[in-house]
Every structure is written in structure tokens, then in C-alpha cells.
Amino acid sequence: MSEHLDDPPPPATAPAEGSEVDGAPRDLTRRQLEVLAWLIDHGAPFDPDQRVVEEADRARWRAQLTAVRAGRSCGCGTCPSIELVHPAALRAAGADGHPVVEGSTAGAVLLLFADGGDHLSYLELAPTGEQIFGELPHPGDLHPT
Fold this sequence. Notes:
Elements: H1 30-42, E1 44-45, H2 55-63, E2 69-73, E3 82-86, E4 91-92, E5 98-105, E6 108-114, E7 120-127, E8 143-144
Antiparallel strand pairs: 1-5, 2-3, 3-4, 3-7, 5-6, 5-8, 6-7
Helix pairs in contact: 1-2
């Protein structure tokens, strides 16, 4: 059977809850906030950087949770990763971000990124196998890496 150019395109997948729709950042979901807070409070420093994460770093990142918003979702179809947008910057800071802390759960690693100005910029869940994650795991299922 051949495909016809007149056939309608397949329906687009819905954006992840709490992610950008039509270019407008949205409030973070409760789960996104809980996972961000867990990573900030308990995440291990990202190892390849040999970076020391001080309590002052964690306090500075935690203070950003009241203002940060959800930007674009990853779009890969296997993870709920999102850009983090700061209203003052009116943009996602993810383009120049680097991982600062990490955690893990069954089947995935979570990374929290910050940009050059130390603003939270991206929340990544990277599956370690073939599992598809439709949402972030419960914080009770997270572990420092």
C-alpha cells in the first residue's frame, strides 16, 4: 500500500506536562519541583568535572526554584527532560549549561545543569537502557550516583 501526499500527518505527541507549549514557559509540575529540590539537596557533584559542590551552591540553586519555569521538553520521546527558564532572562539558559549534580533511579541517570552564570538551565533524565520514561521518578526512588 502506498502513502498518499493527501493523507493527514500523524497526530503530534502532546508535550510533557509542565513543558512549553507555543513558546510560552509554564509553571513546573509538583514532581518536577520535587525532583529538582532532591537533586539540589542530595545530588552528587558531577564526577567528570571534579567540581566541589558547596552548601552555598546548593542554597543558591534552591533559591532559584521559586522563579524557574519549564521550557521546551527534550522531544526525544523517551524522557521527560526539560529546559529551565528564568523569567528575568526570558530565555532558557540550557544552550551553554554544564552538569553540576547527578542522581540515579532504576534505568536512568538524572543530571541538573547550570549555565555560566550559575542559573539552573536543564533537568535531564537519561535512560540507561531501552526503557521509556513518560515522567520523572518519585524523589523517594532517587539515589546519589
